Amino acid sequence: MDVIGGLNNFKKIRFTLVFFYVLFLLSCGSKDAIQNVDLQYQDSSAIGVSFETSDVNDLKFFLKGETKTSILGEIKSSGHKHHFTPVIPFRAAQTYEIRQGGRRLYSFKVKDLKNPDRPELITIYPTKDTVPENLLKMYLIFSTPMQEVGNASDFISVFNETEQREVELFLNLEKDLWDKDHTRLTLWLDPGRIKTGLIPNKLMGLPLRQGHSYTITVLGNWKSARGIPLPKNYIKKIVAGKRDNQMPDILNWELSDPAANSKEALKISFGESMDAILARESLQIHYKGEIPVEGNYTLGEYENTIVFTPKDSWNEGVYDISSDSKIEDLAGNNMNHLFDTNNEEIKKPTSSETHYKRSFTVF
Amino acid sequence: MKALKWGLALTGIILIFVAAGTEKTSKLTSNFTKGNPGIASMDKLAFGPEGILLIGDTKNAAIYAINTMDFKEKSEAEEVDLEAFDQKIASSLGTTADQIQINDMAVNPISKSIYFSINIIDGTPVLLRLKGQEFEHISLQDVSYDKIELENAVGINAEDKRGRPLRVWAISDLKYHKGKVLVSGLSNKEFGSTFRSISFPFDDKQDYASLEIWHAAHGQYETHAPIKTFDIIELDKTDYLMASYTCTPLVLFPLDDLKTGVHAKGRTVAELGAGNSPLDMISYEKEGKKYFLMSNSNRPVMRIKYDEIADFKETLTEPVEEFAATEGVAYDNLPFPYVLQMDILDDKNVIYLQRTAEGDLVLRSRTTKWM
């Protein structure tokens, strides 16, 4: 009896211990529980998270899947309420975990960006397919600011279709040449290979070979500054044509004939494709030699033309069109000198004028 | 009475300490203001005295001096050996390695702390300090700082004579030397490659000289090539700027000649091979002899002996016709390819950031004995 009674007592004690142990665990669980988690967004970025818990000692935030390196940031507390601000905003669509002493207490997912500005490659200049063999540069124009990490060469490949091999066409720079907005990238074909007499030119020749076809691929994994990739690979095919050894000459440009008292556009035909960016920035029209004429410049097909639409109607009289001498054709030849100044065979007189002008009359 | 004596003595001691503390920060930081300096990009880092961190901001075309208050002296640094370093930085920022870029690294010579400037994918600059195996974020929201805008810095949309946008080169390297902040880069002046010497503390005076070099790999004189990295070398009691350029000439300019309005011609002492770009340059002493280390984009780390430079009295003026051939001062190739950043960690060690053959980015310290 005593033995049986002893066993029963033991069972009772064990049951009581288990009960208290479970109660203890439950109480611990409730003590550690993360509640009322609320992510704060600003301009679609998750800049912080507020939550409630009784103990924030050793509480850390991690990228999901990462267990060693916690996220840097600051926790501000007021009683049981806390707010964590990471050094940089949480990433869109990424899952994060709140851990304490190595134990995961909570995980949360950041909202995906609403209507994210998916980047697009709007234009590749030059837009024409046949380019001079001494082409100097190309521009990629994107719809939104692009990522500020990595190198453009990671996202651009060039294949020589004629020789059936991948080639390095563009100058690889430590820091890429972006404009302030990070939407326009300038890609240089190595000037050292284009200028006659320089060692790279002697050893490797021009980057493009006349008669050869090239496929330039801009990869779809190139991301915007918000981390959104391009929607697809973009392909541009070019053929290297004959060498351009002529300097642009304003006197050779053809001008249309807008009528007085109208807002007809003035069409300027260069007679060749020009550097798209410089063409837009280099021209200015004046009335009676000094009064600037306001209006918009729009590049025409293949950058062969630029169309000026005046804000106000044309007056009768004499106008000047002035071009900054820095305007360039596709080979980098400007109004003062050829890009390849070293080539004795094609050498032309150079100048240091800042602007060139010609007049036209509106009737 | 006894208590009063003790009280006075204690007050005296406190006053001495306060005065000493004030003295320490007043000399160089008395012009500093408190607040958010508004740094737009942290392209280059360098330490001045008293834990003052110099930050080269190309986007704002300015140099910032930040009082890090990190001046607790330490004679020896801890050994560093961290693998997957870019992933570690990315994880500490709650993101992935493809979303960040390590722009520069600098060691505080007093505390031996290692600082990193990081770019986030959207261009946000972040300053981190290594602490053991982890990082600390150095917030610049409310710091003691001063700044100086670079005179005639390249305009944000400026282009070179070939129409190439130049702003990216506005600050190519930055160092502190004998009370001056030395900055290499490009300016809007006729001659593109400039070197600036700015008094520190900043007093709005900056000397900037344009530089011309004989570029043996290109076979011509160049003024538009910007210095990629530089150091200072003393030869016959004269300080020289030792500048390294893309493709890869090593050129000496007497530091005293580099003054406003001067168009200085350098003495090319080495041509270290075309098809390469120098990335970083440091100097150290070992067994009483001085050495320079230069890391490169397409070459291993080069070690150049001070004595070799001192003994080289010529100027290279002939083109190097053979591709990637070298001329001039001799150097040793060290077995460290793809070293992206280097700095002096302490008297006996250097620290470097290297991309391994497996593609891993590692941060390691190494004794100069084996460098």
What tags apply to this protein structure?
heterodimer, A: 363 residues, mainly beta, Immunoglobulin-like, 3 domains, 5-stranded mixed β-sheet, 4-stranded antiparallel β-sheet, 4 helices, B: 371 residues, Methylamine Dehydrogenase, Chain H, 6-stranded mixed β-sheet, 5-stranded antiparallel β-sheet, 28 strands, globular
Structure description:
The complex is a heterodimer of chains A (363) and B (371). By secondary structure, chain A is mostly beta strands. Chain A has three domains: 33-109, Immunoglobulin-like (Sandwich); 121-241, Immunoglobulin-like (Sandwich), CATH 2.60.40; 250-362, Immunoglobulin-like. Chain A is 13% helix and 36% strand. Chain A has a five-stranded mixed sheet with strand order 9-16-15-11-12, with no helix packed on it. Chain A has a four-stranded antiparallel sheet with strand order 1-2-5-4, with no helix packed on it. Chain A has a four-stranded antiparallel sheet with strand order 8-10-14-13, with no helix packed on it. Chain A starts with a helix and ends with a strand. In chain B, the strands form six sheets. In chain B, strands 11, 12, 13, 14, 15 and 19 form a six-stranded mixed sheet that branches. In chain B, strands 1-10-4-3-2 form a five-stranded antiparallel sheet, with no helix packed on it. Chain B has helices spanning 2-29, 85-92, 306-311, and strands at residues 33-35, 44-47, 52-57, 62-67, 81-82, 100-107, 114-120, 125-131, 134-137, 143-149, 173-177, 180-186, 193-199, 206-215, 220-222, 227-235, 238-245, 249-254, 263-265, 267-271, 278-286, 289-296, 302-305, 327-328, 332-333, 339-346, 349-355, 361-367. Chain B has one domain: Methylamine Dehydrogenase, Chain H. Chain B is globular. At the A-B interface, strand 3, strand 13 and helix 3 of A face helix 2 and strand 9 of B.
Topology diagram in text:
The complex is a heterodimer of chains A (363) and B (371).
Chain A: H1 2-32, E1 35-42, E2 45-52, E3 59-63, E4 73-78, E5 81-86, E6 95-100, E7 103-109, E8 121-125, E9 130-132, E10 137-142, E11 156-160, E12 165-167, E13 177-178, E14 184-188, H2 191-194, H3 199-204, E15 213-218, E16 234-241, E17 254-255, E18 266-269, H4 276-282, E19 283-287, E20 291-292, E21 295-299, E22 305-310, E23 317-324, E24 355-362
Parallel strand pairs in A: 9-16
Antiparallel strand pairs in A: 1-2, 2-5, 3-6, 4-5, 6-7, 8-10, 10-14, 11-12, 11-15, 13-14, 15-16, 17-18, 18-22, 19-20, 19-23, 21-22, 23-24
Chain B: H1 2-29, E1 33-35, E2 44-47, E3 52-57, E4 62-67, E5 81-82, H2 85-92, E6 100-107, E7 114-120, E8 125-131, E9 134-137, E10 143-149, E11 173-177, E12 180-186, E13 193-199, E14 206-215, E15 220-222, E16 227-235, E17 238-245, E18 249-254, E19 263-265, E20 267-271, E21 278-286, E22 289-296, E23 302-305, H3 306-311, E24 327-328, E25 332-333, E26 339-346, E27 349-355, E28 361-367
Parallel strand pairs in B: 14-19
Antiparallel strand pairs in B: 1-10, 2-3, 3-4, 4-10, 5-28, 6-7, 7-8, 8-9, 11-12, 12-13, 13-14, 14-15, 16-17, 17-18, 18-20, 20-24, 21-22, 22-23, 23-25, 26-27, 27-28
